[in-house]
Amino acid sequence: MAQFPRRDYSGPPRKSAQSPPPAQPAAPSAWEGQAGWYDQHQGYGGADLYQMVLLPAVLKRLGAKKGQRVLDIGSGQGVLGRALAHLGVDAVGVEASPSLLEAAKTRAGKHETYVLGDARNLGEVLPGQAFDHAAALMVLQDMDPIQPVLAGAARVLPPGGRLVMALTHPCFRQPKRSAWAWDEERRQQYRRIDGYLSPYQTRIATHPGAAPGTAEAAMMTVSTHRPLSAYIEACGQAGLGVVGCDELTNPRRGTKGIRFAAEDLAAKEIPLFLVLTAVRLK
Ligand SMILES: C[S@@+](CC[C@H](N)C(=O)[O-])C[C@H]1O[C@@H](n2cnc3c(N)ncnc32)[C@H](O)[C@@H]1O
Fold it and tell me: 144-162 burial, b for 16+ CB within 10 Å, e for fewer?
């Protein structure tokens, strides 16, 4: 497992921005308006869920070696690029939000490159470039359609090259159509699912835990729900075969009330994140 700095690691001092950010996002991104907040939230090494769950899982599945090149699709403020760079891997991020791109460049070390572009058009954004592996960390739900993203990723990979996709779990975490609930009779916490097969888009709170009335509580992004089959089919259409699947639970727990044991059991049993690993078939 990669040794990556823990949450109290503040990273090297930020460089001053090299150039002012271009005004226009390369694709519609609700993250542009909250780039400052997101950059602070992730910090240098990633928010706690990234450090505890997402980055270790994605780095393990990528299995990238020192000197290899990895494409980071929708790189945000560069949290994955920095983790890869710590391993001596050359990371190239493609990001639609100019402000997040600037945040990534400002924090970047020598193994990182960040490019403004629409990940649905990787051929134009990175003409003639090739990579050993690619990752899409918590981004495919922010992109629509995903077929061109996956097809573009497949084209820059060699046969056998991996694309690792981390998602909120589409089976258990449908935005606004799923929730934890309590069965009083059975004294069980369960996951209530109100919709699954039909794809939909909805605006969701960026930071659902934010205190009501704060600026954070008003921040919204657009999320696209697709059933699991849509991701696997889109991989197949792009010439990618799914070879790995990690279903990850949330290690965070609330305060220890009388339902704690039941809540803990459910939280350990029902995964809220999915990491799919696909390889280019030929
Ligand atoms: C939830 S953030 C994740 C960012 C980063 N991967 C991380 O894990 O911190 C989703 C990112 O996808 C970017 N994005 C959305 N649509 C995009 C597109 N068509 N092309 C490139 N980036 C896009 C957003 O601007 C945002 O930075």
Answer: bebebbbbbbbebbeeebb
pLDDT tens-place string over residues 56-109: 999 999 999 999 999 999 999 999 999 999 999 999 999 999 999 999 999 999
pLDDT of residue 29: 84
Is there a cis peptide before residue 22, judged by omega within 30 degrees of 0? no
Is the CB–ligand 1 distance for residue 97 below 6 Å? yes
Q: Does the beta carbon of 101 lie inside 6 Å of ligand 1? A: no
Architecture of the domain whose range is 32-169+223-254+273-280 = 3-Layer(aba) Sandwich (3.40)
Q: Name the closest-CA residue to atom 9, ligand 1.
A: 76
Q: How far away, in angstroms, is 37 Cα from ligand 1 center?
A: 14
pTM of the model: 0.92
